[in-house]
Design a protein that fits this description.
The protein is mainly α and about 210 residues long. Helices cover about 75% and strands about 0% of the residues. It has one domain.
């Protein structure tokens, strides 16, 4: 049976795969499209609509340029600068999520936790990105023995099982072994959770059993 550290690493790898590039490929265009739809629905002048479309295209181009930076340190700086220059936009939220991930990979977990926490609590950020940031923040808080984010209702049910898994790991990180085992056991029996999440939860629950 895999030990808890191995299972935790598997989960971290899963979350990493959902980060910036994969998320951008799957939902990035939808997020930008949704933001534009809101803008365009309230606009009454054709020129205003074209102007906003142009701004979105410029932001997306600038974001992809930041992501293309090969040097990790320079990419972190470029993403941070982009997010600061384009606040309250879907592209800025994507940049912040990727910046946090890079800082975590580069051995700066405290800074990464701050970025994840900030993004998770930004009401103007897209729900999917806030959900991923909250999950990542919960995991980091467990590792760093830092306070957890206040409970929140996750509207995007696709991410709810991953948040439950993160919450269970936070209990484990806080030394609440029995509570963690109960949480993992409950998640393993949740038919709405993906099979991979349920299987992982069942294995951890078995590992934590007396």
């Amino acid at each position: 049976m895999a030990d808890a550290n191995q299972l935790f690493q598997e989960l971290q790898d899963d979350l990493k795969q959902q980060r910036m590039h994969e998320l951008w490929r799957k939902v990035g265009p939808w997020l930008i499209g949704s933001a534009l739809t809101i803008v365009l629905a309230t606009a009454s002048v054709v020129g205003w609509k074209a102007y906003n479309e142009h701004l979105a295209e410029q932001r997306t181009t600038a974001l992809m340029a930041a992501l293309a930076e090969k040097d990790g340190t320079k990419q972190e700086a470029a993403l941070g600068a982009f997010a600061a220059a384009h606040p309250n936009t879907p592209q800025a939220a994507l940049a912040q999520l990727e910046q946090a991930g890079l800082e975590q990979e580069n051995g700066e977990p405290e800074d990464a936790l701050k970025l994840y926490t900030d993004l998770a609590t930004k009401p103007q950020a897209p729900e999917a990105l806030r959900a991923l940031a909250r999950i990542a923040a919960t995991h980091l808080a467990a590792q760093l023995h830092a306070p957890a984010l206040p409970p929140a209702v996750m509207k995007d049910t696709a991410f709810a099982p991953l948040q439950k898994e993160a919450d269970a790991w936070k209990l484990y990180g806080d030394g609440k072994k029995d509570d963690a085992r109960a949480a993992f056991q409950q998640l393993s029996e949740d038919v709405s959770a993906p099979p991979s999440v349920r299987a992982r939860a069942a294995e951890v629950a078995a590992y934590l059993a007396p």
